[in-house]
Design goal:
The chain has 282 residues and is an alpha+beta fold. The protein has nine helices and eight strands. The longest helix is centred in the N-terminal third of the chain and has 17 residues, at 2-18. It is globular and about 60 Å long.
Length: 282
């Protein structure tokens, strides 16, 4: 694509130098449009979706829920450790604006971690401090948390803790980010959405590749209560599409699968879309 663009620029320059004109039925705009269409065409089949395949990383849009479970041995690639400092009661001693209120370390997928630091720095520039409360959890850790929750609620699943394999945290791309006023809170609930920090995140998270994983108006789809603190990294193109269209990740995947089905029905090469097809571990 870059080579073709350079050729078009050279052709324009050549015409300008010689004083000639481009053909009436040709323009650079037409060239760019044709070039973009060609990039989304595989053989004779065009990829029919608002986001190009090349702009979606299959690993970053991986979904984990009750219908698409991750396996016990699934561990995201390139996990990096984020040092955590113990916060004072006033929320001071922040490390890049992110910390946990206990002395421990947390992990996130590397690209996600880098983007989260950028987001937190942008928030600080606007006068808001964000703190990382929870990050990657293994299958076994989530299993323990789920069983403890069931025990506390007399065996009832109240929708606040996902069962093992269904947790977004196991992807290494989901993280709980909270205001300093909630650091010492015994629990988290939807009232946090009124905090100025959470309002800022909802307005700006897509600029850094994040979405609000469990929106308020999508509980019937996600099967999870509204969590204004739960950010999920999917990459900027996907995050922008999801947030601007008021979707949840489940709805995005439904639309993506429909596009994949259209592509295959039109005779598209299955190998092209196979990485974007997710199957449950069970």
């Amino acid at each position: 694509m870059k080579i073709l663009k350079r050729m078009a620029a050279l052709e324009l320059a050549f015409c300008l130098v010689l004083g000639c004109s481009l053909a009436e039925d040709f323009s650079l705009e037409d060239f760019w449009e044709d070039d973009l269409i060609a990039e989304d065409t595989y053989g004779d089949v065009t990829w029919d979706f608002p986001i190009r395949l090349s702009d979606m990383d299959p690993e970053l849009i991986r979904i984990a829920n009750q219908d698409y479970l991750l396996s016990k041995d699934f561990v995201p690639d390139t996990l990096v450790t984020i040092p955590a400092r113990k916060a004072n009661k006033d929320g001071s001693n922040a490390n890049n604006g992110m910390l946990k209120a206990v002395s421990s370390t947390m992990q996130l997928q590397a690209t996600c971690a880098e983007a989260l630091i950028e987001l937190s720095e942008a928030a600080r520039a606007d006068g808001y401090n964000l703190y990382l409360k929870s990050a990657y959890r293994s299958w076994s850790t989530q299993n323990t948390m789920y069983k403890n929750r069931l025990k506390k609620n007399n065996g009832k699943d109240d929708g606040w803790v996902s069962k093992a394999g269904a947790s977004d945290h196991q992807t290494g791309l989901g993280c709980d980010v909270i205001p300093k006023s909630w650091i010492n809170a015994s629990g988290m609930n939807s009232k946090m959405a009124k905090e100025k920090e959470c309002i800022w995140m909802a307005q700006h998270c897509q600029e850094y590749g994040f979405i609000i994983r469990y929106p308020e108006d999508k509980e019937d789809i996600t099967k999870i209560h509204y969590e204004p603190w739960h950010l999920r990294y999917v990459g900027i193109p996907v995050a922008t599409y999801i947030m601007e269209n008021g979707l949840c990740l489940e709805e995005f995947h439904e639309q993506l699968q429909a596009a994949i089905d259209r592509f295959l029905e039109a005779g598209g090469n299955p190998a092209v879309v196979e990485p974007y097809i997710q199957r449950s571990a069970e």
